[in-house]
Amino acid sequence: MANAVASSSRDRTAQPRTSLHSLHSVHQYNPNQAVVMTDEIIRRRPASGLYIKIVNQYGFKVKVGKGQHGEVFLAENVHHPGSAMAVKAVRRKNKSDRLRKLRRNDNIPRQPHLPLVDQLGSTEHKIRKEIAIMKKLNHPHVVRLLEVIDDPLNDKIYMVMEYLGGGEIKWRTASDNPLLRVDQTRRICRDVILGLEYLHYQGIIHRDIKPANLLWTADRRTVKISDFGVSTFSYAQRLAAAGKGNIKHDDTDPILMDESDLSKTAGTPMFLAPEIIADASESAYHLPLPFLPHPHRSSSSQSQTQTQVQMNASNKTPTPTQGTGTAVQVGAQTPRKKPPITKAIDIWAFGVTLYGLLFGTLPFHAGTEFEIYKVIRTQDWDVPAVMGLDRIPTGGRHPEFAAAAAAKKNGPAGRKAVLETDGAQVMDLLERLLEKNAARRITLERVKRHPWILRDLEKPEEWLRETQLTQYIPLEPTHDETSSAMSAVRFRWLPRIGNRILSTLRSVKPQRSFRRGRPRDDRDEQDEVGVRSAPHYVHVVRQQPASATIASGAATIGSPRQLGSVRERKRRSRQDLARNKSTNDIGSKPVDGSWASSPGAGSSKGKSVDTSLRIPSQSSRITSPAPSPSVGPSSMATSPVGEHPPSDHLPDGASPRSDRPQSMVMQWVRKLGGSSRMSSYSNYPSLMTESAVNLALSGRLQYRDGDGRMHPVAATSPPSRDSADAMSGHATSRQSSMSMSIGGKLSKAMRAASWTAPDFAQARPSEDMTSLYSGDRPEDLDEEVLMYGAGGVAGSPVPSVPNSALLSTVSSMHSIGPALVVRPRMDEQHPEASDHVNHCHSHSHSHSHSRSRAGISPSSRSRTTSPLAKVTYRTREESPSSGSDDDDSDENSYDSADDGSSILDHQTRGRTMLVNQDPGDAHSFEGQPSTSQMYHDEDEDSDSEEAVPLEVRTRRPSQSAADMTSPRRSLSASAHPAAQAGKQRTMICT
Ligand SMILES: Nc1ncnc2c1ncn2[C@@H]1O[C@H](COP(=O)(O)OP(=O)(O)OP(=O)(O)O)[C@@H](O)[C@H]1O
């Protein structure tokens, strides 16, 4: 079977792309191909100009895009020249970093009582959620996540994805004319429908469907859905889609099960469904209390504070005068229950997208963010007389009128003829997609069968059959397979693994903030957050020989709390590395046979036990061997963490670098399982402790195969592979990966531990496996389509159309609705704070005035998304306080909306984009911490990314009006005088 699957994979890549025969290969697409999780970053300095930088096995070639939280690079696996993948480098940001920065500037009172857990930032949570979602997804029309490189010691997380060389769908000219022919649009739609159908089946609501999130493969034959930054997992939807009892185990992933963001509004204004907008515009007045840190405020007064939102009923603009217009008192006790966000919002967004592709413009128009919401909610849409680049007549918004007229003239045949035109069919589909009542909106299932979607398909029934969703139902382990494996290795506690790890990590938190030789202070504590957060240095190796020992390597480094600063840590790491080299380190060069000779080892003989465990002193995550020519396909299923190229694979001059401390191993082991019990591992698997499986879960439990190679035993991360192998087509089967020289029981154990185990049969270039999936593709798209710039606008690398920010993603519910003025009731107690608020009001109203004063053209260098928003670009030299934070001032920074920052400092290649209400106040934001200021990479190579010119696609952040509703937002806003002067709702768009 393994061979069959593997050969089918080969056949698939050999299939001509223009044949429907290739559809058969799609059937065999295996969704169980796992995402590789790597928890160590090793950087190498590229000697030649081939790469910007090298992170693990990935050589970064060029920056291809920039999102809200990160940058996307085209990368190549240094093992496989010519391979291509997209690596999204995302900074982890968290509140603690912001607080640290603010405290450093003495802008806010210290709050040492803040629990550490509360300081973990939402941005990282969001990234992790995006990763968790993407990990679930494996479909030809969904961008595939291949590997996550998440080193807790690094401030960036790297998401390695398949590379979509065609970029975003460009759909309009600068004059708002369509770029795509109608039949091209239809093909795109088929792709999107299939991808969306799969997402919904998996319980994922994408929430940001729009052309910019639909990426072409390099050959422009396939479109895939990308960007899950605001996506949501709905367990209820998953249940409904799959039926009870058919839920994959990983659906219980806590980060997925957190559905709190279902109540938040996110997406792109122009594409938001009416139900979201109605919800947001109503509930926007029921905002949670802003956190207003004031030295004299007691916690009780905070909880009782009410916020008033002043709205002028006629024009919906905020008024500074309390008591006029429609005043809504907002209290924590009156949150309005929001209607659930359902997958219908994706259908609506798909309808808007379809309209855009057909007409080069969008169905609803308005000049401002709030206006567009009103228009979407209340107004109907109309259509031009023709659609598509080929200008096919639409027949008008209501083809039924023409059909009735034709029926009068020519009878039923005449009517039929009218209704079967391209225009009439697409009108009918749009009508159903853009149904304002979500309950009545067409379902994807019916969209898929709509005549316009099936139109021009040679064999529509075959297409429907071939693309049935059931083919993507994830493989579940059989009962036998599961139960036998579980009994052998005691994997019954799998559902509790996450909790155990969490509790383990919690228990070590206090150690993280220890600084040797220095008294602790808040700053130290903040420095440690999110850095040394996991026991990385445990390396447990299973061996075939009977003897088993646990050995610790040279204990020269100590526990994390003894590590001191990063520099100190690195220095010690290098020393340790050198020492280990000279003493024939067992971690990096495992030898066959017993580990009894290892320092500190004990031994235990067991009856024909085929495993042993050890803890080497070398960093465990890089010890898996690189693939050798003699390694067969199955051995390609080694851990990706072992795929870091040996130095002789690297470009000239490149040298591996690991800055890991090595030997806090035993402490972690004791924490995980207790050293006294470690000898019991010799009886593995029957006596394997949960601690050992915890190690397995974290990828550090390894076994030695018959050839002496090391492989990780993974619990949630399966015996994994180099994602590059996926891209280069190295294929093995699940069966082969499960039978790797360990023997039946362990294989089953591994199988049980790897429910999401990869099927390496699917390892192949994604574009091959997705070709023609959505139907006939007799020809390529026009060449000129390939030339267009970002934002879906032809000939414009940066969108220049007005209101382009309304086409950008918003990930904060508070950007929805009219610009709000939130007035805290603190004027009696703290008149100075009240002044700030009033000052804010006046700024709001003087917005247009100050704009004209500054001579800022609304259409050139500013992107206005709400009446209170403005983006101003200034050169770095113009910025009075630029460079005030020398540690990271040269970083390319951009703020995120979700974390509530009012920091809008965007520096791009020497230019600083300051966002403020008044240009005169722009400099004052410089004093606030920006993303980059707080999250600079500890690695000295990190800046190399920033020097890379943005060559292909740029999506700039823009902002809109103020929001003081988020505790963190108002924290920073209130803390900084300038922020108080210009507190505006923040909306980051990309
Ligand atoms: N897999 C990929 N292959 C090729 N290009 C990609 C890929 N993923 C993203 N890009 C490009 O990088 C740009 C930024 O991507 P990203 O998804 O991070 O931005 P974004 O949509 O603004 O995301 P977010 O909202 O999470 O910040 C995209 O517009 C796209 O052009």
TrEMBL record:
- Enumerate composition-biased segments (Low complexity): 298-310, 549-559, 593-606, 857-867
* Compositionally biased tracts (Basic residues): 839-852
Name the species this protein comes from.
Answer: Ganoderma sinense ZZ0214-1
Q: Where is the composition biased (Acidic residues)?
A: 884-898, 937-948
Q: Name one Pfam family in it.
A: Pkinase
PANTHER family xref list:
CALCIUM/CALMODULIN-DEPENDENT PROTEIN KINASE KINASE-RELATED, SERINE_THREONINE-PROTEIN KINASE TOS3
> What protein am I looking at?
Protein kinase domain-containing protein
Q: Where is the region Disordered?
A: 1-26, 295-335, 508-536, 549-662, 705-739, 758-777, 828-990
Identify the residues that the record assigns to the Protein kinase domain, covering every copy.
58-453
Q: Which SMART domains match?
A: S_TKc (SM00220)
